[in-house]
């Protein structure tokens, strides 16, 4: 194929991936923040010269270069040690997992107040909806911050206010608010002003951060139970995989299981044999990542058939997979293991769910009908109830006529 035809073919499949109605099951709120929002929040930090922000914007610096300025300011004010984070920030091509967590600490300094949490929740939903995600499970770690009068509950309330504030698309987030009408499957880009608004189902998963104590983890599970009629439908275990012990979170995860709350766990981001085995024995409803399993663990995983949230770009950028070509997606897909494509941290890794579908087509040669089947299969693994699943299936049926 000559270059021109190749470029045209790539454009066509990229657009098709955007138009495909998609289900996102693994997206961290603070990892999905818009770069422009981080920049604008940055500019409100006291003593930060507006000139610095303007220069950063005008010079078109790479997104992740800008926290260097933030880090310097925070360093000057004694909030962090600038030298500790400088090298991480300056890296343009992939960061190790520990390096990502240093960046998350910086992001949290910027985003952890009620108004900013509300803003980013609203924008994250708008961004996923804009690329035809029709069902979004967004996960976030409820945070306490006494200085800002923030409790875990008020943090989640602030997220929910963000979901309610979305205007560009109808957000169906209350568990009692399912619709019997099929969702619109018109790409956002093709909607006129007077066309009926597009809909997106949004559900929340509350994350337990691996740095938390057993008691804090239990608080998160109890909060999820308390807020189950407000769109909270599951529990996630995440955070820096080299921090913490499985035994610390187990009582909270066990409690969630007893309460009937669906659970997803970040598993095998590092080769921690004891923990991977414990996670497989615990047998949650879904697993995220599963990068560093040994032969025996792969065998167990496949026989357990636990659905996997696959995060291609994230895994390659953080070194969990050696390359796209050698990503474990291929093995799991060929083994017909249940899986769903996800973004993980679309802001941090500059990706989108459409791009993840495109990467699967470009790297592993999946056809449109195979990609469509992947989107359809993901509906099986959502934590929402059967009414939502039926609605999503009806909508995908309609979309099939247009796309295939
Ligand atoms: C493990 C991750 C993650 O909760 O503040 N998080 N945990 N592995 C990953 N892969 C790279 N990416 C994100 O969103 C940010 C938090 O999500 C978890 C980390 O705990 C991070 O601090 P929230 O909204």
Note the total helix count: 17
Terminal CA distance reads: 23 Å
- Report the principal-axis shape: globular
- What ligands does this structure carry? N6-methyladenosine-5'-monophosphate
- Based on secondary structure, the structural category is alpha/beta
Low-confidence stretches: 48-67, 176-189, 191-195
Strand content: 5-15%
Element string (H = helix, E = strand): HEHHHHHHEHEEHEHEHEHEHHEHHH
Helix content: 40-55%
Organism: Eleusine coracana subsp. coracana
GO molecular function: adenosine deaminase activity; metal ion binding
InterPro entries: A_deaminase_dom, Ado/ade_deaminase, Metal_Hydrolase
Cofactor: Zn(2+)
Question: Features of this protein?
Answer:
Ado/ade_deaminase, binds N6-methyladenosine-5'-monophosphate, alpha/beta, 9 strands, Metal_Hydrolase, 404 residues
